[in-house]
């Protein structure tokens, strides 16, 4: 450490003011600025956190809510290691994750990307992820700091949170990760916190993060989240991204020259950038450590993680695992299993496995497996299926398709995103054109809805006729671009000429072209549910796969409601009425309502489980894997029961009026029965909890040890997640009836027992006292509660703190 700090000070003394300032802004969308004369290299960042998102496919791991559902920190640390290897193979140094924002409201668009409604669980999973990643000398970017708990109003809304709630719920997991792992960067959020943008919030960035928590890394803005020059750098924002500079750069130099800003402020920020660069060990013109992408080991780890996340919510009469000779596989997600959500965390994987394909491969000829779609689940047309297209892409280094293309190759679909730094090696990014040409063949005759969007000027021709002429050149951010729709009649099996032209003459640092298409059924044409019902009637078991469509859960927007979209609920009910042995498999990253819950025999939550998700689901359904996931969030019965219901979405001011009563804390305190409680998850076996051993009394400030024995009392091996909650029996402040403070996942063979020991420190009993500005433990009686979920407490003990 001393050598690192010495090197930093040596470099700092040699830098000019302009060079110091240059370090404080990105070079472009993904790279920091290099100072070549001093051998200071540029570092490259990549979106995450479920995969290293670059121009080529990488392993897509399960999303955040699925990772948290494993309750397995050791496993998530292995995921972090694998992500580091993939990041290095993508020629990057920093992966932008993890996302540890608290799940405050079930409709928030990025709930799939976050971990939990509980800060302790979110913190432990986040610690493991960062430890694994940084063990390979790849930097993490802990985000989004702080209170970015909804996508509506995220750019301009103010999250108005009292200090106690801020500390206990919304910062606790950040504190844990910062203190235990020292992430290379912490990313501030877009929103305002109590009226002040996070990017210039002194209380958040300097007083808490840097001074109180002793963080010595880099505070980086979310992309274009900075709004000021002097206020931001003075109050703790070290690195403005993306580059080139907008509010920093020459404006900072001028502020120092004009005596508006102390040069020491620039030194402090530059010192942090240098510390990150020196710690990285990178050097100009030197190769990064070797990495690897999509290895067998990474594929197996993605599958194992998905398997451990899958949560068995209901299993009436032990209908699972499957023992049937004929299975009806029904629903849109059986063949179009969603592996991730939308936005910056989206990963293009080298492959994805559907549950239908996995079940057929696993069961072979021994079981009759038939499929019926039943309905669709799209709000807008999905990407045109690759089997409908035969396309060639040509890219030209001019805006008029002139000369020979600099890129020419076949592509599977019309869904292209380019970043400037990736494509600029081939073209002038502010002045280029691209053309897709080939054939479009749809399987069935009928009417189709065609969707098109692009970031500049795009046109679509079918059989030479213009279908779209869309000029979006005047817009400047990806979120501002809209799509257009047109309805067209097609003849099934006929090959149509398809040509798409794209011209970019703008200075945006990104470019995209996207086309989608789906069949539009007239009322008398749609016989999909009746066909599914007929299939269910003649099968032993009906598996109904329902859930999200692509990008339904996404950054940039919240869900409009908690219901499954389109006719999915109708489909489930119709199938359940036709076959009493109906199993519902949910492919979602956040809570949904289940109006049919009493009509089906089993419910399996598969999350957005990465590219191996289909294999994982099939393994659980068939009994090769015993489900061991548990809910990291509460599933409410209805939206009106949720803690933030009366204050969501707010206007420009979002009041966190529920205070510390978030998630299960709210349901417990208000005695509201959820659909499924926090921590819930069933197994194919059963577990017995022995007596809880705990001291009767201890002094405040001393740690205590508790112990409990768990026994597998069933016939198959399984894993149980033992959860430890603490309750303050009598407090000066209103406190939740219980709060998660420890957990452990234990694997047991039939008849096997194991004693688990937990250490509870002073913080496990504390609340944040605003009047004293510190964590406080009151003397008095506390209860230690140990159970299988937040509402399935198996053992308890009282302890007196003196």
Give the helix/strand layout:
Blueprint: H1 2-14, H2 17-23, E1 45-47, H3 64-69, H4 73-89, E2 94-96, H5 119-134, E3 139-145, E4 158-160, H6 163-170, H7 172-181, E5 185-188, E6 192-193, E7 196-197, H8 202-212, E8 218-221, H9 230-235, H10 250-257, H11 263-280, H12 296-309, E9 311-315, E10 326-330, H13 355-363, E11 368-372, E12 389-396, E13 407-411, E14 415-419, H14 420-423, E15 432-440, E16 446-454, E17 457-462, E18 465-471, E19 484-490, E20 496-504, E21 510-520, H15 528-537, E22 541-547, H16 568-578, E23 582-587, E24 602-605, H17 613-621, E25 653-655, H18 664-670, E26 687-689, E27 697-698, E28 704-712, E29 718-728, E30 739-748, E31 753-760, E32 767-769, E33 774-776, E34 780-789, E35 792-801
Parallel strand pairs: 1-2, 2-3, 3-5, 4-6, 4-25, 5-8, 10-11, 10-22, 22-23, 23-24, 27-35
Antiparallel strand pairs: 6-7, 9-24, 12-13, 12-15, 14-21, 15-20, 16-19, 16-21, 17-18, 17-20, 26-28, 28-31, 29-30, 29-34, 32-33, 34-35
Helix pairs in contact: 1-11, 2-11, 4-5, 4-12, 5-7, 12-17, 13-17, 15-16
């Amino acid at each position: 450490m001393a050598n690192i700090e010495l090197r930093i000070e040596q470099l700092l003394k040699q830098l000019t003011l302009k060079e110091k300032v240059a370090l404080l802004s990105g070079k472009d969308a993904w790279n920091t600025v290099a100072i070549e004369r001093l051998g200071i290299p540029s570092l490259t960042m990549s979106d995450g956190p479920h995969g290293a998102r670059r121009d080529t496919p990488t392993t897509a791991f399960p999303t955040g809510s699925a990772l948290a559902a494993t309750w397995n920190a050791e496993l998530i640390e292995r995921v972090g290691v694998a992500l580091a290897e993939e990041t290095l193979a993508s020629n990057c140094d920093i992966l932008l994750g993890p996302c540890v924002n608290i799940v405050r409201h079930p409709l928030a668009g990025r709930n799939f990307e976050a971990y939990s409604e509980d800060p302790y669980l979110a913190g432990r999973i986040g610690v493991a992820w960062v430890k694994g990643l940084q063990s390979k000398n790849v930097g993490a970017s802990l985000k989004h700091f702080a209170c970015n708990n909804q996508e509506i109003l995220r750019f301009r809304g103010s999250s108005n949170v009292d200090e106690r709630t801020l500390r206990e719920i919304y910062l606790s997991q950040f504190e844990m990760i910062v203190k235990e792992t020292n992430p290379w960067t912490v990313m501030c959020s877009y929103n305002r916190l109590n009226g002040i943008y996070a990017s210039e919030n002194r209380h958040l960035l300097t007083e808490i993060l840097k001074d109180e928590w002793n963080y010595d890394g880099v505070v980086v803005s979310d992309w274009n989240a900075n709004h000021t020059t002097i206020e931001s750098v003075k109050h703790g924002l070290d690195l403005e991204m993306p580059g080139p500079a907008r509010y920093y750069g020459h404006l900072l130099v001028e502020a120092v020259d004009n005596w508006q800003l102390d040069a020491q402020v620039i030194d402090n920020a530059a010192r942090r950038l240098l510390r990150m660069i020196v710690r990285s060990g990178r050097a100009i013109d030197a190769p990064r450590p070797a990495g690897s992408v999509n290895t067998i080991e990474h594929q197996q780890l993605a599958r194992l993680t998905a398997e451990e996340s899958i949560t068995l919510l209901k299993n009436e009469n032990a209908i699972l695992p499957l023992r049937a000779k004929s299975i009806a596989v029904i629903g849109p997600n059986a063949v179009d299993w969603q592996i991730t959500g939308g936005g910056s965390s989206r990963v293009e994987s080298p492959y994805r496995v559907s549950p239908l394909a996995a079940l057929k491969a696993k069961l072979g000829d021994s079981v009759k497996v038939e499929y019926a779609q039943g309905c669709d689940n799209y709000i807008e047309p999905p990407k045109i299926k690759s089997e409908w297209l035969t396309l060639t892409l040509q890219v030209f280094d001019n805006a008029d398709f002139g000369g020979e293309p600099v890129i020419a190759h076949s592509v599977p679909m019309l869904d292209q995103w380019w970043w400037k730094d990736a494509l600029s090696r081939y073209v002038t990014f502010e002045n280029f054109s691209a053309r897709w040409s080939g054939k479009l063949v749809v399987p069935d005759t009928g009417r189709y809805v065609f969707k098109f969007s692009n970031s500049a000027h795009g046109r679509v021709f079918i059989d030479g006729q213009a279908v779209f002429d869309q000029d979006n050149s005047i817009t400047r951010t990806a979120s501002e671009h809209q799509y257009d729709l047109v309805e067209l009649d097609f003849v099934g099996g006929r090959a149509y000429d398809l040509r798409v032209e794209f011209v970019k003459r703008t200075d945006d640092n990104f470019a995209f072209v996207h086309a989608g298409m789906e069949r539009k059924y007239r009322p008398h044409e749609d016989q999909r549910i009746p066909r599914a019902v007929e299939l269910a009637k003649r099968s032993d078991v009906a598996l109904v796969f329902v859930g999200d469509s692509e990008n339904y859960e996404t950054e940039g927007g919240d869900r409009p409601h908690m219901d499954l979209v389109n006719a999915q609920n109708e489909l489930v009910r119709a199938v359940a009425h036709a076959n009493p042995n109906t199993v519902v498999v949910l492919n979602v990253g956040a809570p949904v309502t289940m109006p049919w819950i009493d009509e089906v025999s089993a419910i399996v939550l598969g999350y957005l489980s990465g590219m191996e998700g289909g294999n994982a689901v099939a393994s659980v359904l068939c009994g090769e894997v015993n489900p061991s996931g548990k809910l990291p969030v509460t599933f409410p019965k209805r939206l009106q029961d949720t803690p933030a219901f009366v204050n969501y979405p707010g206007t420009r001011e979002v009041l966190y009026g529920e205070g510390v009563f978030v998630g299960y804390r709210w349901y417990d305190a208000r005695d509201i029965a959820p659909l499924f409680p926090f921590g819930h998850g069933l197994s194919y076996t059963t577990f017995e909890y022995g007596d809880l051993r705990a001291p009767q009394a201890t002094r405040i400030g001393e740690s205590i040890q508790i112990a409990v024995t768990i026994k597998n009392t069933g016939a198959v091996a399984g894993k149980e997640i033992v959860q430890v909650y603490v309750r303050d029996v009598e407090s000066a402040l209103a406190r939740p009836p219980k709060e998660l403070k420890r957990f452990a996942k234990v694997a047991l063979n039939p008849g096997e027992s194991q004693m688990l020991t937990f250490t509870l420190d002073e913080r496990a009993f504390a609340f944040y006292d605003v009047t004293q500005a510190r964590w406080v433990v009151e003397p008095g009686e506390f209860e230690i509660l140990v159970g299988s979920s937040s509402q399935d407490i198996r053992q308890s003990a009282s302890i007196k703190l003196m």
